[in-house]
Amino acid sequence: MSYQALLVAPDGDYVTDYYFETKEEVLNRLADRGSNWFFYPFEFVVTDKMGRILEAPPELAFFKGKNVQTVIKTFKEAYKIAQEKVNKTGDDIDLFEYIDLVKNILFQGGKP
């Protein structure tokens, strides 16, 4: 089995990169990826077939074991809700508030 990085933008857009034979190799490459993937701040390690999340940052550990498509759908839904809030109130949403929104959508079946 081989592994790859899944890099996700806040709006749910994503790219895959860094295909290696071990999770550790992917994690090492992610740690040294620099700013060329600035617009994709959420990084995960997945199987080469894009099946499930195997590794996630600590603040997104609740995604471990989840289907990749579920993760992408959750980010897209959270972004839509966040944009509606910004448009309505004019207030920005910080990273921690956004992650809470993502988590609530995932565990409450689409309800923020």
Number of DSSP-assigned strands? 4
Quote the beta fraction.
15-25%
Secondary-structure element sequence? EEHEEHH
**Radius of gyration of CA atoms, rounded to a whole number:** 14 Å
The tally of domains stands at 1
The major beta sheet can be summarized as: 4 strands, antiparallel
Gap from first CA to last CA: 36 Å
Question: Main attributes?
Answer:
about 110 residues, alpha+beta, 4-stranded antiparallel beta sheet, 3 helices
Briefly say what this structure is:
This protein has 112 residues and is α+β, with helices and mostly antiparallel strands.
Helix and strand layout, with pairings?
Layout: E1 3-8, E2 14-20, H1 23-31, E3 42-47, E4 53-55, H2 68-89, H3 95-107
Antiparallel strand pairs: 1-2, 1-3, 3-4
Helix pairs in contact: 2-3
Describe the protein:
- Strands 2-1-3-4 form a four-stranded antiparallel sheet.
- It contains three helices and four strands; from the N terminus they run ββαββαα.
- The model has no long low-confidence stretch (mean pLDDT 89).
- By secondary structure, it is of the alpha+beta class.
- The N and C termini lie far apart (36 Å).
- The chain has helices at residues 23-31, 68-89, 95-107; strands at 3-8, 14-20, 42-47, 53-55.
- It has one domain.
- Helix 2 (68-89) packs across helix 3 (95-107).
- The radius of gyration is 14 Å and the shape is globular.
- Helix content is 39%, strand content 20%.
